[in-house]
Amino acid sequence: MKYEKIKPIPKYIERLIKQRDSMDFPVQDGVRRFYAYLTKNDGELTKVTVAVKTFKGKQYCKQVAVHGVHSERCYVKDMIRCYIGGFHVGWYDEGIQSRRRWYEYGEWGWAYDNNFDPPAFIVNMDYVGKFPEYKYSGYQSFTRGDVLQYLRVYEQFPQTEYIVKLGLCHLAMRKQILRKAEKNKPFRKWLSVHREELQNPHFYVSSILTAYKTGKPVAEVQARAAAQKSIMGSDYQELRRTFSRDFDKLFTYIGEQHIGVSDYNDYLKACVFLHLDMSLPKNRYPHDFRRWHNIRIDEYASAMDERDEQTHQEFYAKFALVAEKYQTLQYDRSGSYVCIIARSPKELKREGRALQHCVGRMGYDQKFVREESLIFFIRKRSEPQTPFVTVEYSLITRKVLQCYGYKDSRPDETVLDYVNGVWQPYANRKIKKIA
């Protein structure tokens, strides 16, 4: 590929781009758009990226990047990449701007291939078929990512075509999968049989390979792997000690009961505190986990309430001091919701009873006093006294650890947007001042 052989945009390509642009963006003012077309440059298949802009009712197109299937460098013109805001294009030569931007030179410069490649719809994908080596690559079925990257992988692993035609484009670039498919015909057959299950793009490659090896569903394998990873935290020491030789049975039980590892961990802590014999199957694997979980948690809460009165009072005083220290993290500005910090363990218990979750019973008050994590109540502005959603916020990582509503339900998107997009950034700013 040579920059001096870059030709202007063909008229028919420009028509295709404008037609597609009119379909994708009926209202075009202020919208940044990129399209691409395939062509040949010095015998090499290349992708030319085109920026499109509408000014005073007229559509303008200009070439801004050229990538080759075998080139380590790409060519760029009048475009800059910003980590905030993405790609920006200058339009001085088109008469849209009164001054040149600092990155506009009006001629081609080079960069490494993995740069200056904004996502762009290719208007003439069939052009790939003009290259005999790619005619049967399955490029027509590849709908995820850049086609040039796909063709590079295809040259190294021809079996990529088979995976793409199964509709598993998200696996077509996974070299572990490709190496396995190259050497193992039963694995290719397994991919075909399980292609509907494998449509989930969130499955890890390791989970897929383990599922093939063990014959178990991929979702079950991945859930088990996530559970195994989660129990490495300090809160799971008792669970690791109790099940050091019996993790497989525990994870199978958790899957059958449709519960999380944290649910079982809370149950186990309560049972140990109550001095129950966890070697007995009825305690270790209760038939109706939810029922016995609630019973043991209530017994645990009652036992905790019977502790020494003086210690109880001292603890309440410490809790109030921590709440006072971090009260500036509360948020009560305009909007549909407000965020209130817990003021006492009694408030945690009230919240837990109202929403039927464990915030008032499983050591969250202890973590609060140790300043490991804080508990906040999300309320509707119209009902500030009514329990609605509970948030656990880590003072160590400065992130939201948990956000649950009634019976550990996931709040709706408006609440999550408020917690993650409004309150958490505000809290992080306030924490810096306290620190």
Q: What brief labels describe this structure?
A:
435 residues; alpha+beta; six-stranded mixed β-sheet; four-stranded antiparallel β-sheet; 17% strand
Structural notes for this entry:
This protein has 435 residues and is an alpha+beta fold. Helices cover 41% and strands 17% of the residues. It is built from 16 helices and twelve strands. It has a six-stranded mixed β-sheet, covered by helices on one side. Strands 9-10-11-12 form a four-stranded antiparallel β-sheet, sandwiched between helices. Strands 5-6 form a two-stranded antiparallel sheet. Strand 2 and strand 3 form a beta hairpin. It starts with 10 loop residues before the first helix and ends with a helix.
How does the SSE layout of this entry go?
Elements: H1 11-24, E1 33-41, E2 44-55, E3 58-68, E4 73-76, E5 79-82, E6 86-89, E7 109-112, E8 121-122, H2 147-156, H3 160-165, H4 175-183, H5 185-193, H6 205-214, H7 218-230, H8 237-242, H9 247-257, H10 261-273, H11 281-284, H12 289-305, H13 309-325, E9 337-341, H14 345-355, H15 364-369, E10 373-380, E11 389-394, E12 400-404, H16 413-434
Parallel strand pairs: 1-8
Antiparallel strand pairs: 1-2, 2-3, 3-4, 4-7, 5-6, 9-10, 10-11, 11-12
Helix pairs in contact: 4-5, 6-7, 7-9, 10-12
